[in-house]
């Protein structure tokens, strides 16, 4: 038995409610089971229940065992003083209010139809498939999938904005500075992203603002903070960048991060940190106020200036300081632009709208639906079940569904799980 199944049973009243009583033999009649509470506090709010001859209005708390009330320290939390009914699978202890009065308790273990338990065990609890409902997935109505995948994507987007709000707070609500840090993280990709974010947080954004007009100084700043200017200085360009970096450190009095080293292994040369850092420097030389441009944009095509970003002259013929090759502009690819839209630009726009008191659901859904779908094992898995991803909206929703519902067996919090458990005893 899992608590989410107990939530499902209570929310939809999937139990025998004839001659319903508390474990102390007081008659119960449920008028309204309440509204699920997704925040802190009791599981259901605004419930109405007759207990004996009194109609109570308040909260309902659910547990597998009644003793979990004490294990979870609810007796020390005033938010739970409003609980009018404790719904449990097993009553192993009496639970009391701070005053000492016993909280009415409803035990459901003997009131669930055996067929419903069997269905739950077979379809969700004991299912070892790639996703629990994979044999039924293709029968899920398309109109319901459209609604659910939009909700899944917005859930994933809300999770991505948590980092943005934390960065914004640390940056004293400087949106341009926060965008720079998030861009640095995503220019580093999975391999170097967290390290790029760390050095970006160590550079005062005011230093960048004072050097936007000089892309070589920006390169010196980024390469120096990444540790790429340490060691041998036989290369003239590396030597010049090191000189500029030392000058910037002395002038603006910031410190370098010791002991960090960027990764080149398992990366294709276009994704080498040297190339991404040069592109990031050119990005800010091309547009010194990208956040303002982002907020002013009504369409994704308004951001296509990003596709003009390339590298400095030295990096047109190099991937590392040591080896020269043929000259290529090394501009940002459309696929990399798409990644920036998914992981940086849309989340920043969404976070800004949250801060301003509105949420741009329609705009972000339109933008993400214009981006080409990602190809990964999530989209491949759902493709085998008969559902093709046609845009990044689909692929992002599939990632959210698999990671946060299927893998965690949160089936009864999922629209598909609700749809497929159709037994009404």
Question: Can you walk through the features of this model?
Answer:
With 425 residues, this protein is of the alpha/beta class. The longest helix is centred in the middle third of the chain and has 29 residues, at 142-170. 47% of the residues lie in helices and 9% in strands. The chain is built from 17 helices and six strands. Strands 1, 2, 3, 4, 5 and 6 form a six-stranded mixed β-sheet that branches. Among the domains are: 3-112, no CATH class; 171-332, no CATH class. The chain has helices spanning 3-11, 68-71, 114-125, 142-170, 175-187, 189-202, 205-209, 215-225, 236-252, 273-286, 290-296, 313-316, 334-356, 361-370, 377-384, 392-406, 415-420, and strands at residues 28-32, 35-36, 44-51, 54-65, 83-90, 105-107. A hairpin with a 2-residue loop joins strand 3 and strand 4.
